[in-house]
Amino acid sequence: MTTQVTVIGLGPMGAQMARTFLKAGYDVTVWNRTAAKADPLVELGAKRAERPTGDLMVISQLDYQAMYDSLDGVDLDGKVLVNLSSDTPAKLREAAAWVAGRGGVLVTAGIMVPPPGIGEPGSFAFYSGPREVLDRHTATLAALGEVVHVGADEGLAMMYYQSQLYVFWSTLTAYMYSAALLGSAGVKAAEIVPFFQGLVGSLAGDGPMGFLKILTEEIDAGVYPGADNSLRMQAVGMEHALHAFRDAGLETSMPAALKELFARTDREGRGAEGLGAVIESIKNP
After folding, report:
1. How far apart are CA 157 and CA 19, in angstroms?
2. Phi, psi of 72 (to 5 degrees)
3. Where is the 6-phosphogluconate dehydrogenase NADP-binding domain (predicted)?
4. For the domain with range 4-159, which CATH number is right: 3.40.1390.20, 3.40.50.720, 3.40.50.300, 3.40.50.620?
């Protein structure tokens, strides 16, 4: 098991990773382009590096260009880089080739908790890249949370990460739209939250509102029954909702986009199918 780890990038995520490794008893070296950010971690027992170094480097920076800038001229031969920075899947694949061309190995990752959740129960991260390399360092990385390997394709971890984030962002933004709509009538958010808690729970459940499971089965089968609940009905209802937002004097870009997506799926001849048919329009822009 690796007992030494270098953390590169000491923003909120990277600094918390370093603290978590220190708490778990690891020999931690830290490096940041703004050197003063390492001071609080050095006080906790970390070693300050003048340049990025170490057999296992855990990276948390703004994007992958920051990795190129930070490691320019650094000897990567035999090194393992685990990069938890955000970027596009294509850029992660390019980065893997860049690291390999310098004798190192890149494992890409996306951690699915905010900084305070790192290393806490429920924390996990998606990893992709060579499984045998990840396996050598799983015990160390597990200090940050559960290690979930999703495949050899270095871009896959970012796809999982961004897919999860999209559900997170869009769900909470939809709630904010809903709170704004009801707020225009004087209803406080605290009054409506129990209903939305129930709705989110039902969507993930097994009952008649368990659409997460229902849609998953339909998507995998490529069949979208709509006899009792057609997409055309959803499109009409979404148009009504859009007018409600407009009548309330609210911003409408998100509901307008959803209304157009439903309408387009209907125009493409899928109005008699179910809501799941929308995925076919998503896959074929």
Report:
1. 24
2. -60, 120
3. 4-149
4. 3.40.50.720
Closest CA to 85 of 69, 65, 64, 103: 64
209: left (phi over 0), alpha (psi -120 to 50) or beta: alpha
Render each residue's pLDDT in the chain as its tens digit; 285 residues. 668 999 999 999 999 999 999 999 999 999 999 999 999 999 999 999 999 999 999 999 999 999 999 999 999 999 999 999 999 999 999 999 999 999 999 999 999 999 999 999 999 999 999 999 999 999 999 999 999 999 999 999 999 999 999 999 999 999 999 999 999 999 999 999 999 999 999 999 999 999 999 999 999 999 999 988 899 999 999 999 999 999 999 999 999 999 999 999 999 999 999 999 999 999 999
Q: Which residue has the tokens 């690291």?
A: 99
CATH of domain 204-283: 1.10.1040.10
Q: Give ranges for CATH 1.10.1040.10 in the chain.
A: 204-283
Q: How far apart are CA 215 and CA 143, in angstroms?
A: 35
